[in-house]
Write a structure and sequence with these properties.
Strand content: 15-25%
Distance between the termini: 42 Å
Number of strands: 4
Length: 196
């Protein structure tokens, strides 16, 4: 992993592999985040008084957040790459993850009930994990492996992911659906396997 000024020289494919988005989308996201931060400072100008400016550029803060979301490294590892402390790395990630969710207008829990889609696809996929040291039974899926289950709700027409919920491998698919209480519009057509 490299800071943004070094990463710009890489090919577009390599950039997308590392960050999960294209260079053009990254630049667009950078502009939106900068505008959001300026608007927040304009609304409350006294809030930033006496606060030291960040050691990282805005692009590096966004890059750090996207890299963590894509690869899930430890904060100690990310802190070493960007030359900051582990706690400061976590602070940057926490702040910019919230900002990115606001400016990118990611769907929330009520999206599926407010706008009825024609059809929804609901299914669960399993990701194998290493056998945990503690609480192994909770992750044992019954297929001779330990897993984490991810339930996806996808709009059938556009194949856009509307909701992702992760649970331990032992949970049944339908119990994941019941526990998390996904709000669905009554007129939407559900395409799911017989477990639902």
């Amino acid at each position: 992993m490299k800071p943004f000024n070094q990463l710009q020289a890489d090919s577009p494919d390599e950039f997308k592999r590392l960050t999960g988005i294209s260079k053009e989308n990254f630049e667009l996201l950078d502009c939106k985040v900068a505008d959001y931060i300026k608007s927040q400072i304009a609304m409350k100008p006294m809030r930033k008084r006496g606060v030291k400016p960040s050691k990282l550029l805005l692009a590096d803060c966004i890059l750090l957040t996207l890299y963590y979301l894509r690869h899930s490294p430890t904060f100690a590892n990310l802190a070493n790459v960007f030359g900051i402390s582990e706690s400061y790395c976590h602070k940057i990630y926490s702040r910019y993850a919230r900002i990115i969710a606001k400016v990118a207008k990611l769907p929330n829990r009520k999206t599926l009930i407010n706008s009825p889609p024609n059809a929804l696809i609901i299914d669960v996929s399993e990701q194998p994990i290493e056998r945990p040291v503690k609480h192994q039974k909770e992750y044992y899926s019954g297929k001779k492996r330990h897993t984490i289950k991810a339930q996806l709700v996808i709009r059938a027409t556009t194949l856009r992911i509307m909701s992702v919920i992760c649970e331990k491998g032992r949970q049944h698919d339908f119990s994941i659906f019941k526990i998390n209480r996904i709000l669905l519009h009554p007129n939407s057509l559900l395409l799911a396997d017989s477990g639902y």
